TrEMBL record:
Signal peptide: 1-22
Keyword Signal tagged: yes
Keywords attached to this entry: Signal
Protein name per the record: DUF4232 domain-containing protein
Length: 242
């Protein structure tokens, strides 16, 4: 699948399972009620490389059930602009305040080996710069990938060691993040749990971006991320820098 065709599915609803930000490595979301207006911040919290440098995750803070959707995506050289739409006004949103990741396929012509500046407009605003990848990761289409979240503000809401990852499947039934474990300083395992069995899932194949936090024992510069659970398997090298 070419990068241009990837853009066809950008408007899909991206599910995500999230870690609480207290440095916890269990990955279980905090309990939350619902409200008609989500708690949110319009500022970009960071960004991460995904999909071998063909896409990025733009991270924002707010309700885990009302993730901003990426609309129009354009590029001028290495500067990428993304228009974000807010959820419908009548959509009920959980009242939690967590990092949400939106998958953004990069337009053709953007070189992942060079620094990329991403500017968000609309319901998410701000600019973040990702350092160019020193070593690209060749990936097949629709395989899970991960990248360190870069551009975080000192003293911000994101925890040290935060990373984004993407899995592929039904846009309405993303897997839940059960745990993040580490076998060594350079090996992370993301454990995924299936959505409730009674939930009806759409038959599309979409990227489901999520945010997690690596255990504090992970200090290596060359980190491998493995996935297991919910029928998702595979390993990938962590993209970007901490």
């Amino acid at each position: 699948m070419s990068r241009s065709r990837r853009g066809v599915i950008i408007g899909a609803v991206f599910g995500l399972a999230l870690l609480a930000l207290a440095g916890c490595s269990s990955g279980s979301p905090s309990p939350a009620g619902t409200s008609s207006a989500p708690t949110s911040s319009t500022a970009v919290a960071g960004a991460a490389w995904l999909d071998g440098g063909h896409a990025v995750a733009v991270v924002s803070m707010g309700s885990s059930s009302c993730i901003p959707a990426a609309g129009a995506i354009s590029a001028s050289g290495q500067k990428v602009t993304v228009e974000f739409a807010a959820p419908p006004a009548n959509q009920a949103c959980t009242s939690d305040f967590v990092p949400r990741a939106t998958y953004v396929a990069l337009p053709d012509g953007v070189n992942p080996a060079q620094n990329v500046q991403v500017t968000a407009n609309g319901s998410v605003t701000g600019t973040v710069t990702l350092a160019g990848l020193t070593q690209g990761v060749a990936t097949a289409d629709q395989t899970p990938t991960a990248g360190w979240i870069e551009g975080m503000q000192s003293g911000g809401e994101l925890s040290a060691g935060a990373f984004a990852f993407v899995t592929w499947g039904s846009s309405t039934c993303p897997p839940a993040l059960a745990a993040v474990t580490a076998a060594s300083a350079s090996d992370i395992t993301v454990v995924l749990a299936a959505p409730p069995g009674q939930k009806t899932c759409t038959m599309d194949m979409a990227p489901r971006a999520a945010v997690a936090v690596s255990p504090p024992t992970v200090t290596g510069a060359d980190v491998t991320v493995s996935f297991e659970g919910d029928g998702i398997t595979g390993s990938t090298k962590m993209l970007g820098t901490r």
